[in-house]
Amino acid sequence: MTTTVAAYAAPAAKAPLERTTIERREVGEFDVLIDIKFAGICHSDIHQAREGWGEAIFPMVPGHEIAGVVSEVGSGVTKYRAGDRVGVGCMVDSCRECENCEAGLEQYCLKGNVGTYNALDKSGEPTYGGYSEKIVVDEAFVVRIPDGLALDVAAPLLCAGITTYSPLKHWNAGPGKKVAVLGFGGLGHMGVKIAHALGAEVTVLSQSLRKKDDGLRLGADHYYATSDPKTFDELRGSFDLILSTVSAPLDLDAFLSLLRTDGAFVNVGAPEEPVALNLFSVIGGRKTLAGSGIGGIRETQEMLDFCAEHGLGSEIELIDAAEINVAYERVLSSDVRYRFVIDTATI
């Protein structure tokens, strides 16, 4: 039998989210039923609820930064049992057969992974995310939250943490490397924490110096304002890696000039509008312009274990569910330090 649970949903594109109920499927043989305790608010939620990235499925229950406790498992589940502290990130299934899935890169499933929300599952039913009381997920797409991480500060790691950890690891951020994190918000602050813990020399590139003290406190060695033209003169040719967490169009040519020879500019922020590029900006210096999504399930677990080992939780502002619409507006005006997290007991 399905289970009726309370949730917050956007009934249509750009409409305010409102309290409603949704149906969760019955717990199957390999399923895990999770009592959601906390759900982070990601800028991706806003993009999708407002159809900034294209046509979406409504009603939409956003939320792919989910932390909770297992309350029931299917008869075939071997990884989890009732009472375990677990998380669910941006995907809840994939084909599991293609070369990427077999390599642990389910996020790049060649047939397309199934998003935690705003997607259709293998039965053709829409998926609903973490702004809700409970969720049912196949055990293969559930990760364990280590005891060293509180659930509220762990929730944003399921997107913001893995979205920054994956490219930092892939492009070998570590001792001897100069890494710049462009944008100091929900993703950027975790990028700084993780890059610092990996041993890199970390610079924040932000529009202003308003958050400089926070940046230095969280692990940055340097902090520059991109609104100051002198920044681009002073830092020309400085970085091995620039991790861009910005979801607005950028002057890519200007930022590419800050890379060393063979440096990489990696986008994890996804603007709604196309961006322009002069190809000479990458030809000169053999530079790489790249993008990165989330990580696979194995890498997400690795990230959580790494964060627990180094004491890295997200900097959060805990809110009641009734404050979601206000929180969305505050995210758009950069008025959050640094991740809103919904206390789902208030739904």
TrEMBL record:
It is an enzyme of class 1 (oxidoreductase). Residues 15-342 form the Enoyl reductase (ER) domain. The keyword Oxidoreductase applies. Its EC number is 1.1.1.2. One of its GO terms (molecular function) is zinc ion binding. Its cofactor is Zn(2+). Keywords: Metal-binding, Oxidoreductase, Zinc. SUPFAM superfamilies: GroES-like, NAD(P)-binding Rossmann-fold domains. It comes from Streptomyces spongiae. Belongs to the zinc-containing alcohol dehydrogenase family. This is alcohol dehydrogenase (NADP(+)). It comes from the Bacteria.
